[in-house]
Design goal:
single chain; about 350 residues; mainly beta; Rossmann fold; Neuraminidase; 2 domains; four-stranded antiparallel β-sheet; about 45% strand
């Protein structure tokens, strides 16, 4: 058919053949205007790998068109109350293939992926108070950070086996840099008041975090080497849950205004916030996809808290998954194939 006449600039065609249990899939991307093949791939494997083959090809298409690998190998960790407690679950980027990760019948919070997606850090009340657990996703072994007071909100450093987290053993909630085995490297914040929710710039040189040092919770940026701190948010009296874009240029966060939580994004250069969610319950806990093109978040727009996704500009907001209980605190993994 004439694809150009109906306005299709690109066309994907495919063929599938099966020999016993082996499937051969050939997929091609065409430029309809030039009548030219742009990408051609052949995949072979068991029938159960069909979805993986399609996703791999989608990654190739996105890479050809944008120079970016997309998010087709990524996963999302989140909290769900479906089992009667706040447990951590993991699903694929599109909400499919949901698996329960923690099973301890306690409160579990703040899931955080290492940059190679091989480790998960999170806060759990397993021992009666908030401690940080660092678990290897392959063998489920790991360590616990259980200093006096609270141990919360871990955030892995990009490319390093290190994480920032809030600990209160000094009597004040401060952010520390820790090794992946839980040893303190150094203290990162030094102001009286609560310093929480660290998130790293993609180059690992800065963190954004939440502090009430000026009276109400606001987001600040700290340069690790110089120690210099700047305030990022000035609009609204309650700005929390920052997540630094993998592209480095923006931070998405939750802002409480007129009695409702909504999601905003702020450009780091011009400090101008843009509201992304409107008139749809409480919207919070935003997390970027690995390529910075999408944001997942939780919302009460349909009643109970559920997970949604939208573009980086706030368009095409839709529900991510259908699952019992309430879902919250989603965290998008890096785009890494560890299988």
């Amino acid at each position: 058919g004439n694809w150009v006449s109906i306005g299709a600039e690109l066309l994907i065609t495919g063929g599938l053949s099966q020999k016993e249990n082996t499937v051969v899939m050939e997929l091609r991307l065409f430029d309809t205007f030039k009548g030219k093949r742009l990408v051609g791939k052949k995949y072979e494997g068991p029938r159960g790998d069909l979805q993986k083959m399609v996703r791999r090809f989608c990654g190739e298409v996105i890479y050809h068109l944008t120079g970016n690998r997309g998010y087709f190998n990524s996963k999302i960790a989140f909290i769900s109350t479906g089992s009667g407690n706040k447990e951590i679950f993991i699903c694929d980027f599109d909400g499919s293939n949901i698996k329960q990760f923690t099973q301890n019948d306690r409160i579990n919070l703040f899931p955080a992926w290492s940059s190679d997606a091989k480790w998960m850090a999170y806060t759990s009340y397993l021992n009666g108070k908030p401690d940080i657990f660092i678990i290897n996703l392959k063998n489920n072994k790991g360590i616990t950070i259980s200093k006096k007071g609270i141990n919360i909100a871990p955030a892995w450093s990009p490319k390093r086996f290190e994480l920032a987290a809030t600990l209160s053993f000094s009597g004040d909630q401060e952010i520390y840099l820790l090794t992946g085995t839980g040893k303190i490297i150094k203290r990162l914040t030094r102001k009286w008041g609560s310093d929480v929710s660290p998130t790293w710039s993609p180059d690992g040189k800065k963190i954004a975090f939440v502090s009430n040092r000026a009276g109400s919770p606001q987001i600040y940026i700290k340069e690790i080497r110089s120690g210099q701190v700047e305030r990022l948010t000035f609009d609204g009296t309650y700005n929390t849950q920052p997540d630094w874009s993998p592209r480095g240029d923006k931070i998405v966060y939750t802002s409480l205004q007129e009695g409702r939580n909504n999601i905003f994004v702020v450009e780091i250069k011009d400090r101008q916030p843009t509201q992304l969610t409107f008139d749809s319950g409480d919207n919070e806990a935003p997390s970027w996809s690995s390529d910075g093109s999408l944001i997942t978040f939780s919302s009460t727009r349909e009643g109970p808290s559920r997970l949604y996704i939208m573009t980086a500009y706030g368009t095409d907001q839709r529900r991510l998954l259908f699952f019992n209980g309430e879902q919250s605190n989603p965290k998008w993994s890096p785009n890494v194939n560890n299988e």
